[in-house]
Design brief:
Blueprint lengths: L6 H15 E5 L1 E2 L2 E2 L9 E5 L5 H8 L3 H7 L7 H21 L6 H15 L11 H11 L5 H4 L10
Antiparallel strand pairs: 1-4, 2-3
């Protein structure tokens, strides 16, 4: 991607990256499809490979520095980079909340890196929470207790 892309062009390229590392699967119980409370079949996005900003940049043919430039305040591409980062963050959170007995330290460190590079310096007067505290808050929002106590949460979405 030699020249700066338009919002539409970057959105299409980012979506192509995620399409290349995921598949859509209908959730089933035995042979029967699972339906949500709206009566719709539940479609699950499965990641065949973990999403990372570095792999996304390789797919786009840009440096990580250029990606960060796209996400700077005032950039028309900031919304695209924010949505991509949110998708990567959501994958990380699901992995942390659903994978048990697995060494997740590397994933925690990656999530801390994502937080540090997203907005730069913390806002004045804003109290920074540790990743552990953020995970506790998410677990409480999703039904109370910790992920360990619950045996994992977010089971409606399958990972690899």
């Amino acid at each position: 991607m030699p020249k700066k892309p338009t919002v539409k062009e970057l959105e299409a390229r980012v979506e192509a990256y995620f399409d290349s590392i995921t598949r859509l699967r209908t959730l089933t119980e035995g042979e029967k499809p699972v339906y949500n409370r709206l009566g719709e079949t539940v479609e699950v996005v499965e990641y065949l490979l973990p999403p990372t900003e570095h792999d996304l940049c390789l797919h786009l043919g840009i440096s990580t520095a250029q990606w960060r430039e796209y996400g700077r305040p005032g950039s028309p591409l900031r919304g695209v980079t924010g949505r991509a980062r949110a998708r990567i963050w959501a994958w990380c959170m699901r992995e942390l909340l659903t994978k048990q007995g697995k060494d997740l330290k590397g994933l925690e460190l990656y999530m801390q890196k994502l937080e540090l590079t997203e907005g730069g310096e913390p806002e004045e007067g804003r109290e920074e929470l540790s990743l552990e505290e953020k995970l506790r808050q998410v677990a409480r929002m999703l039904g109370g207790g910790s992920a360990e106590e619950k045996g994992g949460v977010c089971r409606e979405e399958a990972g690899t």
